[in-house]
TrEMBL record:
It comes from Georgenia muralis. This is ATP synthase subunit a. It is found in: Cell membrane; Membrane. The gene is atpB. GO terms for molecular function: proton-transporting ATP synthase activity, rotational mechanism. Pfam families: ATP-synt_A (PF00119). One of its GO terms (cellular component) is plasma membrane. InterPro entries: ATP_synth_F0_asu, ATP_synth_F0_asu_bact/mt, F0_ATP_A_sf. It is a multi-pass membrane protein. The chain crosses the membrane at residues 60-79, 120-140, 146-167, 187-207, 213-236, 248-281.
Length: 286
């Protein structure tokens, strides 16, 4: 057991300058075993509550709750005292919603459908953005969407919305026919085409939404932990000749932080745009 625990500590990432260390990070640092790069263990922190149950609550779950709480608080502050002449907070809230309504929903769906589906698209855009941006917020330092649960939930919301929109617009039978049996194709081709359409429409779409968001947030966290862990090691543990290299890794970490902000916003935008496109495809026949 001691050998097993020592090996487990060796594969955990070291505490970085700007990343809140987990207990595993602290153990590795106290052992003084040198540089510890990031690993998938970062995404499975020890339980805070209900260890070993389906209700297990850990640091990533706490980050998600904080992100949701802050998002709800910001929109509540913006909407609690709406007036004809908006305050600064109300103006910011209206601008945020208008960005999704006019810049995404109405752009693809038109005015009527765009307004109908704006609420769910607003939830998707700002929900994904809030979960993504926690990856660069000090003392949180991990994206709530870097573990598959959150990307999968948002993908399921998009999936249900896509099917609901098609069924509402066409009826269940005609919707399934339009998605699985494109017109103008010789009937023997349907033996090949229909299974492909089913996989593409009902399996691959939600899967790609999930994997795209998950992979971007997971890789972003690993890059940030790698650069700042290396900075910590070079500044405080490495030999004197190597210490100046910490400035390079710190600069790289700062650059990756700015890039991660861009990626967090971009992934929220892409996720919402793709959801809008899928809604559009569901309400229109091939």
């Amino acid at each position: 057991m001691p050998d097993h625990e020592e090996h487990r500590g060796d594969v955990l990432s070291a505490a970085s300058l700007l990343t809140l260390p987990t207990s595993a990070h602290v153990v590795a640092a106290e052992e003084g075993a040198g540089f510890h790069g990031p690993s998938l263990a970062d995404f499975f922190p020890p339980a805070i509550l209900f260890d070993g149950t389906i209700f297990e609550f850990n640091r990533i779950a706490l980050v998600r709750l904080i992100a949701v709480g802050l998002l709800v608080l910001l929109f509540w502050l913006a909407a609690r005292r709406t007036t004809l002449v908006p305050s600064r907070g109300q103006s910011l809230g209206e601008m945020a919603i208008d960005f999704v309504r006019t810049g995404i929903a109405e752009e693809s769906l038109g005015r009527e459908l765009g307004r109908r589906y704006t609420p769910v698209l607003v939830v998707i855009f700002f929900g994904v953005l809030a979960m993504n941006i926690t990856g660069i917020i000090p003392f949180l330092n991990i994206a709530g969407s870097s573990v598959i649960g959150v990307p999968l939930i948002f993908a399921l919301i998009a999936y249900v919305t896509f099917i609901y929109a098609g069924v509402k617009a066409m009826g269940g039978g005609h919707f399934m026919k339009s998605q699985l049996f494109p017109p103008g194709v010789p009937w023997p081709i349907y033996l090949i085409l229909t299974p492909i359409e089913f996989l593409s429409t009902f399996i691959i779409r939600p899967a790609t939404l999930t994997v795209r968001l998950l992979a971007n947030m997971l890789s972003g966290h690993l890059l940030l932990v790698l650069t700042f862990s290396a900075t910590n090691y070079l500044f405080f543990e490495a030999a004197g000749a190597m210490a100046p290299l910490g400035a390079l890794t710190f600069a790289a970490g700062f650059a990756f932080t700015l890039f991660e902000i861009f990626v967090a916003a971009l992934q929220a935008y892409v996720f919402t745009v793709l959801t809008t496109v899928y809604i559009q495809l569901s309400v229109e026949s091939h």
